[in-house]
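Per your request, structure below.
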């Protein structure tokens, strides 16, 4: 079986990003984005997805964190799409209900090739320290659009924004781990169309 990995760099006037992703890893990570809270969330994502993630980024965070967060999402989405190749032999669908203290996130996703995001939460705090929590939706929209994932994120409960964010990132990680796992019963593409690329 070929290794399901991807390495990419992205350089714009706003950000410079280098990312390596291995789907069949052990959850190791080395993440330095210049946005401390995002580092924490991506470390959780790697650990709970079982993917190995190496990521460095610099961006115009003196303006705000938006460009860095969104561009990292684009890179992670592109890396997922590249590592999944033609998606033969995967489960395709994943779902998880993730509790984090008082917070509860419901995640469902389909590696369909059709990008779509449903993001349903009502934040009770605007920031976690310096991090604007509205950027969480921007991040996952970028991932979904670039990876071609139909992604539903619904927060069923939660008051503390840190806990809500953790529930989301861990929940998506666990659902993704389920979806990318190899299915021994289905060695081909899990679609009657014969393709999951569009």
């Amino acid at each position: 079986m070929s290794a399901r990995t991807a390495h990419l760099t992205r350089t714009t006037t706003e950000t410079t990003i280098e990312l390596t992703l291995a789907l069949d890893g052990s959850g190791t990570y080395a993440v330095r984005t210049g946005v401390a809270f995002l580092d924490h969330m991506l470390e959780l994502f790697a650990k709970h997805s079982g993917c190995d993630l190496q990521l460095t980024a610099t961006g115009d965070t003196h303006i705000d964190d938006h460009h860095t967060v969104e561009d990292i999402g684009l890179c992670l989405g592109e890396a997922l799409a590249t590592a999944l190749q033609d998606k033969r032999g995967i489960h395709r669908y994943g779902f998880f209900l993730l509790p984090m203290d008082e917070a509860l996130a419901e995640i469902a996703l389909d590696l369909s090739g059709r990008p779509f995001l449903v993001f349903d939460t009502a934040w009770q705090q605007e920031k976690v320290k310096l991090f604007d929590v509205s950027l969480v939706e921007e991040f996952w929209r970028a991932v979904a659009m670039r990876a071609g994932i139909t992604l539903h994120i619904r927060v069923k409960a939660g008051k503390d924004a840190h806990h809500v964010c953790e529930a989301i990132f861990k929940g998506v990680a666990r659902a993704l781990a389920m979806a990318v796992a190899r299915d021994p019963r289905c060695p081909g593409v899990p679609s009657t169309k014969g393709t999951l690329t569009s």
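The beta strands are 5-11, 15-22, 29-32, 52-59, 93-100, 103-110, 116-120, 127-128, 131-132, 150-157.

Regards,
D.
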